[in-house]
Design a protein that fits this description.
Blueprint (H helix, E strand, L loop, with lengths): L9 E6 L2 E7 H7 L6 E6 L2 E8 L6 H18 L12 E5 L4 E6 L3 H4 L3 E12 L3 E9 L10 E3 L1 E4 L6 H13 L3 H4 L3 E12 L2 E13 L13 E8 H8 L9 H10 L9 H7 L2
Parallel strand pairs: 1-4, 7-12
Antiparallel strand pairs: 1-2, 3-4, 5-6, 7-8, 7-10, 8-9, 8-13, 11-12
């Protein structure tokens, strides 16, 4: 996905000598108030310098605790829209080798750290309409993307949960899919993208599963986060996913499904326009 930030506006975010994210200048000016937590220094690789979490912090727990104090202060000051969606849900910040700390999910866009999630493409093979895809409409009370159309099932990969475990959990909570159906999940790889909004930076990687469902199965929400489900023929799904009514950060997963099943081709010209308008 396209973004509009300039190189002069961002600095690498470093933990334990590893770059784990990017910080924009509008965030940096507030982090500068915490020199005991963040070291802002020059860097040979970037003229803008970098932001490093204090290397004196000894381990995962201390890094998490010190960062959490700052985030709670920033939240109480009402400085960032992203922090108004505070969830008390944690994502791990990782280097290539190990987890370095955990961070409140709502804060991750401020630091441009990669988030991982799980998505399930639920579909049926209809005798008349061919492949039809289940979509959900998010609740109007959701902190993020309220009322937008979305993939049938999706959720973030929180601390303490595995990929398949998250898929099974979200399938039950969001769509009441029983285990005797969800056990048939088929891994479809990963979809990665980079997105920017007023909340911050979103380098996302989604673990994708396909799930063929019986014709008579109708998803039912059980956690209050979905207001409706709709089963669409693939052709109608192609039209829906490219509209502003669809959640931007879920669209790539549905587009990937439609490409893999031959419903979007290179000749369609839709994908280029979608990413240009993000």
């Amino acid at each position: 996905m396209s973004t509009c930030f300039q190189k002069c506006d961002i600095r690498p975010f470093v933990v334990e000598g590893q770059q784990v994210g990017l910080i924009k200048s509008d965030v940096l000016k507030h982090l500068e108030k915490y020199p005991e937590v963040f070291c802002i220094r020059d860097c040979e690789q970037t003229k803008q310098g970098l932001v490093e979490l204090n290397p004196a912090f000894r381990d995962y727990n201390e890094r998490t605790e010190q960062l959490e104090k700052v985030l709670r202060n920033l939240r109480s000051e009402g400085l960032f829209p992203a922090l108004q969606g505070w969830r008390d849900e944690y994502f791990e910040v990782k280097s290539e080798r190990r987890a370095l700390l955990k961070m409140e999910r709502a804060a991750t866009p401020l630091f441009g750290v990669r988030k991982y999630g799980v998505d399930i493409n639920g579909y049926v093979r209809h005798p008349t309409h061919g492949i039809c895809i289940w979509l959900q409409q998010r609740s109007n009370t959701k902190e993020t993307w309220p009322g937008k159309w979305d993939n049938m099932v999706g959720g973030g990969l929180s601390v303490g949960f595995g990929i398949k475990e998250t898929a099974i959990k979200e399938a039950a909570e969001e769509a009441s899919i029983p285990y005797d159906l969800v056990k048939n999940l088929v891994s479809a790889g990963c979809v990665s993208f980079y997105f920017e909004s007023r909340q911050g930076l979103f380098p996302n990687t989604e673990y994708v599963f396909d799930l063929e469902l019986p014709l008579d199965f109708v998803p039912q929400n059980s956690d209050g986060e979905v207001q409706a489900f709709e089963l669409l023929p693939a052709k109608e799904c192609v039209e829906r996913v490219f509209t502003p009514d669809f959640k931007t950060t879920s669209a790539p997963v549905v587009i990937d499904f439609l490409i893999r099943h031959g419903h979007i081709t290179a000749d369609d010209g839709k994908i280029g326009g979608f990413y240009a308008n993000c």
